[in-house]
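A favour, since you know our structure tokens better than I do. Would you make up a two-line entry for one protein for me to read? Write everything out right here, beneath this request.
=====
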Amino acid sequence: MRAGAFKAVIGTAFLGAVVLAPAAEASETGAQTVSSSCAAGTFRGTFSITYQPAGPAEYHPTIATIGGGPYIGDSGTFAMDVFYVDADGAANSVYTGKFTGTAGTKVSVHLPEDVKVPQDRPSYVSVSFDGGAGPCTARAEIR
């Protein structure tokens, strides 16, 4: 093996180790990510949210990445709601936010530390997208 080829192999192996490190760190903290999308005509909205255990009985949603469009009439407005359903079937919102980004780009939202949902109740994240003539809503379960 020539010296240049050996350096390329070592460099590739090192790069692979660097890329895998964040996934290993996420699994150690128990972090999980769920995603959802919706569509209205040609408009499409997507989001993913990462959450992790916050003690033995709660989850803390930490960061959401939201994107939609780009299509004529897309305002780039996203409304997010984090909620759980109590034993009586009522939805209890623990976080709401409305965000405006440039149409066709992604927006990352870091949720405050005190945003938590119970692990023993159905919990969800809902994101509504203003797609101009065709808005839509996507929802994912935190489990």
Observations:
- Strands lie at 32-40, 43-53, 58-68, 77-85, 91-100, 106-110, 117-118, 123-129, 136-142.
- The chain has a mean pLDDT of 79.
